[in-house]
Structure of Germin-like protein:
Amino acid sequence: MGAPFLIVTIFLTLASSFAFASDPSPLQDFCVAVNNPKLFVNGKFCQDPKLATADDFFFKGLNIAGNTSNKVGSNVTTVNVAQIAGLNTLGISLVRIDYAPYGLNPPHTHPRATEILTVLEGTLYVGFVTSNPDNRLITKVLNKGDVFVFPVGLIHFQFNTGDTNAVVIAGLSSQNPGVITIANAVFGSKPPISDDVLAKALQVDKKVVDYLKAQFG
Amino acid sequence: MGAPFLIVTIFLTLASSFAFASDPSPLQDFCVAVNNPKLFVNGKFCQDPKLATADDFFFKGLNIAGNTSNKVGSNVTTVNVAQIAGLNTLGISLVRIDYAPYGLNPPHTHPRATEILTVLEGTLYVGFVTSNPDNRLITKVLNKGDVFVFPVGLIHFQFNTGDTNAVVIAGLSSQNPGVITIANAVFGSKPPISDDVLAKALQVDKKVVDYLKAQFG
Amino acid sequence: MGAPFLIVTIFLTLASSFAFASDPSPLQDFCVAVNNPKLFVNGKFCQDPKLATADDFFFKGLNIAGNTSNKVGSNVTTVNVAQIAGLNTLGISLVRIDYAPYGLNPPHTHPRATEILTVLEGTLYVGFVTSNPDNRLITKVLNKGDVFVFPVGLIHFQFNTGDTNAVVIAGLSSQNPGVITIANAVFGSKPPISDDVLAKALQVDKKVVDYLKAQFG
Amino acid sequence: MGAPFLIVTIFLTLASSFAFASDPSPLQDFCVAVNNPKLFVNGKFCQDPKLATADDFFFKGLNIAGNTSNKVGSNVTTVNVAQIAGLNTLGISLVRIDYAPYGLNPPHTHPRATEILTVLEGTLYVGFVTSNPDNRLITKVLNKGDVFVFPVGLIHFQFNTGDTNAVVIAGLSSQNPGVITIANAVFGSKPPISDDVLAKALQVDKKVVDYLKAQFG
Amino acid sequence: MGAPFLIVTIFLTLASSFAFASDPSPLQDFCVAVNNPKLFVNGKFCQDPKLATADDFFFKGLNIAGNTSNKVGSNVTTVNVAQIAGLNTLGISLVRIDYAPYGLNPPHTHPRATEILTVLEGTLYVGFVTSNPDNRLITKVLNKGDVFVFPVGLIHFQFNTGDTNAVVIAGLSSQNPGVITIANAVFGSKPPISDDVLAKALQVDKKVVDYLKAQFG
Amino acid sequence: MGAPFLIVTIFLTLASSFAFASDPSPLQDFCVAVNNPKLFVNGKFCQDPKLATADDFFFKGLNIAGNTSNKVGSNVTTVNVAQIAGLNTLGISLVRIDYAPYGLNPPHTHPRATEILTVLEGTLYVGFVTSNPDNRLITKVLNKGDVFVFPVGLIHFQFNTGDTNAVVIAGLSSQNPGVITIANAVFGSKPPISDDVLAKALQVDKKVVDYLKAQFG
């Protein structure tokens, strides 16, 4: 009964940000990103370095709690090259994650990102799972002032086990870590993955597949 | 009803291999891997280059079909640094993937891997999904002689839509791409993810969680 | 007598493709290459990611044998960023190599490329030579299903020792491996290397040099 | 008069930590550092991955203020591969910096590090200076919740302009960023830089040089 | 008395060039830099490779002594991507450094650079200092034909201890190593670092700070 | 007649050194190489950094001309990680090349190396050839004080066109650039390339092949 809902929700995740150990190195002091409507490169185009100002390296408001009024009870505020243009070529970014009581940042993975997380408030049960074939789960209960590392590309989660809000700040090893939220990709892709594939993957009939997809429509 | 089964099966995937664009570069002609029981490094220790022989760069049997008698009807044969010690430091590997009729290599992702796949036999419906927030699905039906690319870290799949076996060979951009099979990590980790977390993630009671975990016991 | 001919032919090579372990890493999911007539970057400019389609990651026809009616009796079909724009930033590519009976892919080297080769049909005698001062030759006779690795930058060759056609597929560790065909560079460069240099290099008089150059005119 | 003192103090800095955009990439999920008394590699040796536990990825106490009772009134608590062995190969680290009222983290630079800093409490006047020949100073006054970036290798500082304590957490793009505290290197090196060099550099007689060195004895 | 002068001069340095171990790798044979008045990238845009000429890889005049008539008695002639456009993407550059008798290339550091220096003429006392906490000074007296290495990012100097001119050529591991001349950054930045910060850093009153800044006005 | 000799000599080259743009980055100040008789890594093991001395970063004698009494009249003195242990992890090296009057450093290529060369004495005709398919020759006559760049992996040469000795110093973008001397690899490998392959490659009978190999025996 709740099973379809469970599937809807199982991966309805808010992504935490990450950063990868191998962004290409800078070839000048900095290369402040600018958007070009017609042309793109690996990373970002840059503005004339003579025009750089402090605001190109600045972001405000990371002290403001994100809105956790959602199904999983967590929210991620990202501070990467999209928010601080000056991060372009510099291989790092940050996030703030807020958790309502019993809020969860559900299992997800990331293409370009190791995360190092610090608990500012609250108590979190966190973990990551190693790749095949072992799939070892490595977990820890974290309290205020605790730091934990999630290696690049591995599935991980954080769960607020307390009845108070929790807050973390995490450093990430890329200017644009990227996030792969499993359920969005599997059930909510645009266009949807064909019923033939998901029915085979789920070993269910297409009605169930269509129901699952509907939750993400 | 079938829903728990579906969740058991949803991610029961056999991994394809991959390779990443940024393995560190070699600092000598080659550095044939050797295992050291007591000590490890990033990558592998190497043997004395004077001892290198052709067999250090050789693997046989990629013409032999893998056994696809399993729930998803596909099988991956990997040829990475674990099979060819000479691949150490060289940033590439291969796989052969076999598909029974209607066999599927279900959605999965990889921490260190772009894949470029060539269809040797059969017809495959393949696709990958972009990262958040767009989660665009990009798909193609591939026939013999077609080549397709799965960018590093993105969730992707291959499905044999024909009533004959299918076979592919794929090149991968790392000596040790790694595979993250979602279901194994989420439902089959050792030890299991706590019922508190998964019940919250699935928005179901712990009975359903325990049932799901049982399928991977 | 045949000596000048031999020199003409000695390096008349068809290149196999390759890929190098250290292409810069991607900073987004993908960055599909587009050509810009006026401006260039390291690698390629990219199109708007919103415009990406499956065809940007697709190539067809790798099942079609290349034409081996040439002096060395081999042919390379390349599948790199020039054929699949979606390979840009992803650090890998492929080739198919066809060999007529007794066809040879003669000694050559590559600036950005390790190659991992799989024999689909036929029997090949393959080898590579280590760099100075050892110049060790490492060889193997390969049959259907055998895999062999040629480390980046080392001179290597493949020779069809059978009286049937041979076919291989090889994975390569760069989006644009590059090929250095020795004879084309030494005798067929445009403009030619000066007679003074080649006469000294070959320790012959300029008539021989001019004759050699003529074979590549 | 105070001039010699000024020189003593001018660069007496407590280092903030940093991280660089180009640590080599990991070749496995993780590679938890272990020390080897006799042998070293670029980075660290690793323990058997089978032995990894949550504590290898964990650090506690970042909520505890550092002792700022020193000449500059600031203190850096580092969380890099020396504190979290699991950071080895993962290209990122963290620091907490505490500032007494009017405390200063004086001008310094770093060999392998971009820093992204978040103000948790207090008001800081921060800045960095571009490299030769422009030597542009880029500064900002930061309040609670503000984020600022210091590009790798550039001289930078943070000054607590308020009459309350200030606290920041910063993410850094290397497992071992390194710190170059100018005064310690110039006046406090072991053994000292020769009087001949420093007298020439400072255009003073050796008495002044010896006085300066004495402050770091 | 001379103290303020000493501070003016202490870091008035002419930079030596450097090179870093991790410029991103080339993705084609070469990518000759061209300037674009409106747009920038990490590194440089390139011209059409078809237009490349020998002059794009050429620089003349490194046999000409630089003018050492300055306060420190040394001069650096740089040959990096700004002088040889063809160096773009190739990860290396050169410098010539001239020293008057008793001339000094004072302590400085660099963001993207290891330097390997060869003495062509004269006698130099050279050294570098390791990072915190050891700050070990490693020095050597170099004569004609001696070679010495300054690791990336570490503070180093060269001092002509002879009564004749000295000359070196140094190879550098980046196309654009960058130089951080400490005094220019600390006392001569544009705009200046605030008196509040420097007075605190120097533990002197603002009159001294203003005097120091004046030397760089 | 002289033809076989010419082939013997055609590639009998003394290698110049080189350096590549993408050695992995250092993870500490330095990592002075030590040899381990039993175990190897990518690059070199290091000694305890506490034991580092100036001699680990030092090489003497680059002012001494190499012996050019050989068939090509040139000689290369290498200064890479094999000569200066301190270069390990630092991504750069040097060479001195001496040329007798009309001496030649014949066409050769390199797996991990861009070279930037400075003429100290003499006049050289230098060139490199681009990769397939263009094989453009780019040449320049260099005099004292001229600098020229040879991009990584491309075939290049230097020829002393004067009747006096010539000397160059070149910077190279790897700690261990490697050299591929074509003739040594093709005709002098140990064991030799099979007569079947070379007879086919040279389109000559095995007597000629055996003769050529004999010149390198």
